[in-house]
Amino acid sequence: DWAAAWQRHLSVNLLGTALLSHRAARSMIDRGTPGRIINIGSRGAFRGEPDHPAYGATKAAVHALGQSLAVSLAPHGIAVASVAPGFFTTERVASRLTGEEGESIRAQSPFGRVGTAEEIAGAVVWLASPGAEWSSGTILDLNGASHLR
User: Which residues are catalytically annotated?
Assistant: First the structure.
């Protein structure tokens, strides 16, 4: 079970990201057009995930992949960046935001709340914009000061 969980995380978080990044880059290079690749990592890559080590490790690998691609793809006009969201509300985690667990999660940020999908999307839209090219290689922390590095 343990090895299968690691394999799932590797397949989805890292290999899936690598394959999509490769396909996007190949398409841009073949057409001779510049572009952007933005990967989604996690603050768990930096603060650790003791209950979910495979998640934290594979998200750290996503950030390392993005930085490697930023260097190798820059000559083609392709900027690569990553975002590292903290806890944010989605349908999948809505039940965790109730009761004591929800209070504990919200207390991780001095804002006393979790992020929203719209906040993550807004950062991705900016990273995809022409004005964000110089941020290639960056890992943008989006966690409401719940983890500082």
Answer: 55
- How does strand 35-40 pair with strand 78-85? parallel
Confidence (pLDDT) at 109 = 97
Class of the domain covering 2-142: alpha beta
| Residue 34 dihedral angles phi and psi, to the nearest 5° | -70, 170
Residue type, 112: G
Burial class (CB in 10 A: 0-12, 13-18, 19+), 10: middle
**What pLDDT is attached to residue 86?**
95
pLDDT of residue 95: 93
Tokens standing for 114? Answer: 């979790």
The whole-model pTM stands at: 0.93
Whole-angstrom distance, CA of residue 12 vs CA of residue 58: 9
Whether the Cβ atoms of residue 146 and residue 111 lie closer than 8 Å to each other: no
* Domain locations along the chain: 2-142
Question: Helix, strand or coil for residue 73?
Answer: helix
The list of the chain residues with pLDDT below 70 reads: none
- Residue 98 class from Cβ within 10 Å (0-12 exposed, 13-18 middle, 19+ buried)? exposed
* Number of Cα atoms under 13 Å in the Cβ half of residue 65: 25
